[in-house]
Write a structure and sequence with these properties.
By secondary structure, the protein is mainly beta. It has one domain: Beta Barrel (Lipocalin). The chain has helices at about 1-15, 80-90; strands spanning about 20-25, 30-40, 45-50, 50-60, 65-70, 75, 100-110, 115-125, 125-145, 150-160, 175-190. The protein is elongated and about 55 Å long. The protein starts with a helix and ends with a strand.
Length: about 190
């Protein structure tokens, strides 16, 4: 009996080992958006993609995670229907050949138990290159409507779109700098 009591006390005093938690991205709260140059500083084009999916797995105790996001590039919305037709055409994204853009993580960086940076690879227009997402904010909470845990983040990254074979406008002086913004919320999986 004494041995059983000591074993129980030892187990009770042991730290709880956290397990990875999976969150499915909520498509109604996840909108990757972008900013690109128009005529070398004349203005900035902005748009977003209306359909995306994916999941994130986070282990706060181990300070690890994984992320995969798939963006339906045909769902681009710039607020200008004619421009959207140009963006999805073979002049730019060529969605007939390349219907998806995909981000897959390689490494998470944490500050405390909060992720602050995600290193990974971004595939756009059939080209895969390293891309780091910086998280401006990250928060998990019990959603009172869903009655489930939800984690949300605001992230950004910058890249040269010509590196992905999307160089429309370069001959007219457009800068190839692209800023990617992602507002995302994930719902804890069952």
């Amino acid at each position: 009996m004494k041995k059983l009591l000591i074993t129980c006390l030892a187990l009770a005093a042991s730290p709880v080992i956290a397990a990875p938690v999976t969150y499915n991205l909520d498509p109604s709260h996840t909108y990757p958006s972008f900013e690109v140059d128009h005529f070398n500083g004349a203005s900035v084009w902005r748009g977003k993609f209306l359909k995306s999916s994916g999941k994130v797995v986070i282990d706060r105790a181990a300070k690890t995670g994984s992320l995969e996001v798939e963006i339906d590039t045909a769902t681009v919305s710039s607020g200008d229907a004619d421009l959207d037709k140009e963006i999805v055409s073979d002049k730019m994204l060529d969605v007939a050949k390349f219907p998806k853009a995909v981000y897959k993580s390689k490494k998470f960086t944490f500050k405390g138990d909060v992720p602050t940076k995600i290193e990974g690879e971004f595939t756009l227009h059939g080209v895969t290159r390293p891309l780091t997402l910086t998280l401006n904010s990250f928060k998990c909470y019990e959603n009172p409507i869903l009655k489930r845990e939800v984690c949300g983040a605001d992230a950004h990254a910058e890249f040269n779109r010509a590196d992905y074979g999307v160089s429309f406008g370069k001959e007219w002086g457009f800068q190839m700098f692209t800023r990617l913004q992602i507002q995302v919320e994930g719902v804890k999986a069952d």
